[in-house]
Amino acid sequence: MKKRRQFFKTAIGAGVATLIPSTIFANSHEKKSPNTILKPKALKKGDTIGLVAPGYAIKPEVLIEAKETLEKMGFIPYHTDRIHGNHGYFSNTDAERVADLNEMFANKKIDGILCARGGYGCTRIMHLIDYELIKKNPKAIIGFSDITALLNGIYQETGLFTFHGPVGSTLNDPYSIEHLLNVVMKSKKLPPIINNVQITDLEEYGKPEYDRYTINPGVVTGKLVGGSLTLVNALIGTPHEIDFTDAIVFLEDIEEAPYRIDRMLTQLMQGPTFNKAAGIALGVFKGCDSVPDPKSFTLKEVILDRIKPLGIPAVYGMTFGHIENNFTLPIGINAKLDTNKMTLELLEKAVR
């Protein structure tokens, strides 16, 4: 209880003011776009991967498993003691979590950064990240879910391609591992990403949220932006609100009732740029159609009702999200979406 009281005392006390610059709320509706593009160095076997937990705490046994997986992939895992700190539901304090992230970019011995897990907490440290440091030390940073905020924010502030892919706690199936390695290790153009993967859990994949369907037909090109629908919405009204103009927007989510998906899509649609997107690629919204109430709309009904009238080429059921077979999408990269064939092609190499 003492720890909990101290947490809330800190949150409302003068101490927290030192973490919030006076400019954090200034120009909060001014969307940022990078002036230059940075590509991280291609990773290779023998490289050191820094593990960070910028949101929720990670269980010791899950951290061990993530390190073992990285070693099997040919990398050397590294983390500081900050990853072990439990601060309420966070892995550590805001100051310590952002210090860990900044240190991984500053450390010349670290070649790439893998977020150990998502959860919640990244939006609390966005204003504390040393973006100038990242510009001078561009590295591949990988994660998804809550990490959506970091990925889009870093890209906006620095122009660095970031990677929406598995976190350490979900790096546990061959497809996700293979595709991640293809994107971050090969400095060459890759073949189109096709929704043709081996299904291991027939019962899970038989659920309606795994349906695949074209919402609006079309073939479009644009830069990739997006991630977790919840986090994309959480960035609205902040300095890191996403500009969707002429972009291919990719979205996914987990365990949100259809009415919540409806609300979040509606909020995006009522914003200034979502309707200007070139295309929309929706992943698998796992657990978002499990509502026993017969009076509820289904997930598919909500998506068709919200997205189809936009007339923007769109598809549902692409292989990414809180699922196995989670392919890696570089944020900021030029891509081609074919909603008829349900393919996504990266038009340039993601690393140098």
From TrEMBL:
Superkingdom: Bacteria
Domain LD-carboxypeptidase N-terminal: 49-165
GO molecular-function terms, A-Z: carboxypeptidase activity
Pfam families (alphabetical): Peptidase_S66, Peptidase_S66C
UniProt xrefs under Gene3D superfamilies: Class I glutamine amidotransferase-like (3.40.50.10740), LD-carboxypeptidase A C-terminal domain-like (3.50.30.60)
Key words, A-Z: Carboxypeptidase, Hydrolase, Protease, Serine protease
Record-annotated LD-carboxypeptidase C-terminal domain positions: 221-337
Matching InterPro entries: Carboxypeptidase_A_C_sf, Class_I_gatase-like, LdcA_N, Peptidase_S66_N, Peptidase_S66C, S66_fam
This protein's record includes keyword Oxidoreductase: no
PANTHER family per the UniProt record, alphabetical: MURAMOYLTETRAPEPTIDE CARBOXYPEPTIDASE, MUREIN TETRAPEPTIDE CARBOXYPEPTIDASE
Family classification: Belongs to the peptidase S66 family.
Protein name: Muramoyltetrapeptide carboxypeptidase
Naturally occurring in which organism (per UniProt): Arenibacter algicola
